[in-house]
Design brief:
23 strands, Rossmann fold, 9-stranded mixed beta sheet, alpha/beta, 4-stranded mixed beta sheet, 3 domains, 12 helices, Ribosomal Protein S5, domain 2
């Protein structure tokens, strides 16, 4: 008699084990393992295999020099920022996953894109498992996205969605959201790991066969990752995250995976009364040109190929307890701690008796080290209560030994500073090509920043 196969799966992250575990080794959650039945295990084996391995015909290995490149066909979405993040446009037959916190505007963005595509003659099916078609219609009217080529369907059953796709030859399919759709092949509830994996696999296979561009919206967890197994991100072609505070007007669309383009580009949108719009003038969204104030410094960072001028704000105040607070919004807390330790060691600033708060204006998050010099300048300015000129930008990476190092694309950053009428720049070394109108001051050590200030 054959031994019964058992398999347990974590419903939080998709980690699998041959025995039940109280704590998941993958995500650290407790009591999330459930036992899969024989049918679920069989489905799991099917979805874990690639589409090529399920075909009956066998194709032998071919030298790479004899293989012709696939031609990637794109079409515009009608939105310049969205096309920028997608790598130049929407690829036919692609599967795109968009994640973001509730209320950030994922549904609004895709409904706006649906209206743009319909205006260009594309047929779009918008499937919602969370809202009625009447609710979507209200939002579409506000976004001016009501066109005959936009079809609405309020449904959560995958078989019904596929039957609707067979009735009409759609060019684009939008699923809102993947956690609400379920397949009748599985007994698990909607949103479970098994259901999400099965549905994504079926959508991927259908989209590749019919050459339909598919967008799926995914909810995110408290940690900021898309709910469901990590394999979901491996199955899709493009993974985008929509970031932004619902109380602010700016939204950022970042690419974390793109099989058809670069992931370095960032799309910037602005929430208006007519919905999300491409930010036409983003150069002045992240800094102000008012009077100089203590604790404020300007830097220029690169988001993909686009330079952005932004303001770094610091507040240094006497600590009310033996353990001073360290808080950073839009900046990495560990790197802030490192810079504070460097200032105490190299400049003899007694910051261990002060609370330090850092904020990046505009709600943007800094992911590169070129803002180190601006962070230090703002901290020193706040500590000494001495304003920094609003005509100066700080660009440079600071090392643990106190050296100020060069950053990439310095010429591009300085040209953007010039276009915003900045007159001075504190950098690690002088640029190869002098930028007229911007006087550069080169410093190689962080201690020389005090002399300049």
């Amino acid at each position: 008699m054959a031994k019964k196969q058992t398999l347990f799966e974590c419903q939080a992250c998709g980690y699998q084990s041959s025995k039940w575990l109280g704590k998941c080794p993958g995500c650290g959650t407790w009591d999330e393992f459930i036992e899969l039945n024989a049918k679920q295990i069989e489905i799991l084996k099917e979805t874990s295999s690639t589409p090529s391995s399920t075909t009956t015909c066998y194709v032998g290995a071919t030298p790479i020099t004899q293989i012709a490149c696939d031609k990637v066909e794109r079409f515009g979405s009608g939105d310049t920022e969205f096309d920028l993040v997608m790598g130049g446009g929407i690829v036919q037959g692609s599967l795109t996953l968009i994640g973001g916190s509730p209320g950030v505007g994922k549904s609004t963005l895709l409904l706006k894109i649906a209206g743009n595509l319909a205006k260009e003659g594309k047929k779009v099916l918008y499937v919602s498992g969370e809202e009625s078609v009447g609710q979507i219609k209200l939002r579409a009217d506000r976004l001016q996205s009501s066109y005959d080529n936009v079809y609405l369907l309020s449904e959560i059953r995958l078989d019904i969605i596929f039957s609707e796709l067979e009735k009409n030859s759609f060019d684009v399919l939008i699923i809102d959201s993947i956690q609400t759709i379920y397949s009748e092949k599985l007994t698990a509830s909607p949103g479970s790991v098994s259901q999400v994996r099965e549905i994504t696999f079926e959508l991927m296979r259908y989209g590749k066969e019919r050459n339909i561009a598919i967008f799926i919206i995914g909810h995110i967890t408290k940690e900021g990752s898309i709910a469901g197994p990590r394999v979901l991100e491996h199955m899709v072609d493009i993974v985008l995250y929509f970031e932004g505070d619902s109380s602010r007007e700016l939204r950022l669309l970042r690419g974390f995976k793109n099989r058809f383009g670069s992931t370095s580009e960032v799309g910037i949108f602005e929430m208006t009364k007519n919905g999300l719009m491409s930010a036409k003038d983003i150069s002045k969204k992240f800094f102000t040109r008012g009077r100089a104030q203590a604790g404020s410094a300007i830097t220029v960072l690169m988001e993909g190929t686009r330079p952005i001028v932004l303001e770094v704000q610091a507040l240094v105040s006497e600590a009310g307890n033996p353990n001073p607070k360290r808080s950073a919004t839009g900046y990495e807390s560990n790197r802030l701690t490192m810079l504070l330790a460097l200032l105490e060691r190299k400049l003899d600033l007694p910051l261990n008796r002060y609370d330090v708060f850092i904020n990046i204006a505009g709600g943007i998050k800094i992911t590169e080290t070129s803002a180190d010099l601006a962070i230090i300048a703002s901290i020193i300015s706040s500590y000494r209560n001495r304003p920094i000129s609003k005509d100066t930008v700080f660009i440079g990476e600071v090392s643990l030994v106190g050296d100020v190092r060069d950053t990439f694309n310095l010429d591009t950053r300085l040209k953007e500073a010039k276009s915003q009428h900045f007159e001075k720049a504190v950098v690690a070394s002088l640029p190869i090509e002098a930028i007229s109108g911007v006087k550069c001051y080169a410093i190689d050590e962080v201690s020389k920043l005090i002399e300049w200030m």
